Amino acid sequence: MLVRARTFTETSRRAQIVTAAIEVIAEVGYAKASFSRIATHAGLSSTGMISYHFAGKDDLLAACVAEIERVTGSFMEPYLEGADGHVAQLRAYVESNVALVGEHPAAVRALIDIVRNGAATSPGVSGRPAVFEEHFRAGQEAGVFRPFDVRAVTIALTSGLDAVVATAAADPPGPAELARLGRELADLYVRATTSEGESA
């Protein structure tokens, strides 16, 4: 079946609605993020304009998650690409994830609330455990990380990181404080996973 391509205007309107939805969810939470609130925030004349572009709330939330993950990936990717070695990559992931709060606080708060309420699936969040476990195993095989249960450490790392990010996102501190938090957390995980406390 042929699918009609969206026009530039339709694409722009969808982006406008997604941005408004993310900001509303960040401000009032998923439960109170009605189409009416989103339409008002986006400056739309009616909720029908949202329904025209999205099949329903689930469809809109999926688009919100996709946009948040795009923004998150674009922000964190330069940090990760510039990190050479298993430990440096671990540090870059943690520090950039915390720094993300300062650059995109609404996106972070919205994603946390969406995932917490089970309103939509985030491939980036649900896929993290497998990525970290693979990273730790590879580092252990390379002699960089000490022997440990990769599943347990992955759970501890992601849970701790999520808690710090959620706390910071609720009332974002300044860039210097976020950088300090990121370094402290990265130092903690490096000390916990390496024999020397730091290696390449």
TrEMBL record:
Q: What are the residue boundaries of the HTH tetR-type domain, all occurrences included?
A: 17-64
* InterPro entries in the record: Homeodomain-like_sf (IPR009057), HTH-type_TetR-like_transc_reg (IPR050109), HTH_TetR (IPR001647), Tet_transcr_reg_TetR-rel_C_sf (IPR036271)
Pfam family name, one: TetR_N
Q: Which Gene3D superfamilies match?
A: Homeodomain-like, Tetracycline Repressor, domain 2
Keywords of the record: DNA-binding
Which SUPFAM superfamilies does the protein's record reference? Homeodomain-like, Tetracyclin repressor-like, C-terminal domain
Organism superkingdom:
Bacteria
Q: Name one GO molecular function term.
A: DNA-binding transcription factor activity
- The protein's name is TetR family transcriptional regulator
What organism does this protein naturally occur in?
A: Pseudonocardia halophobica
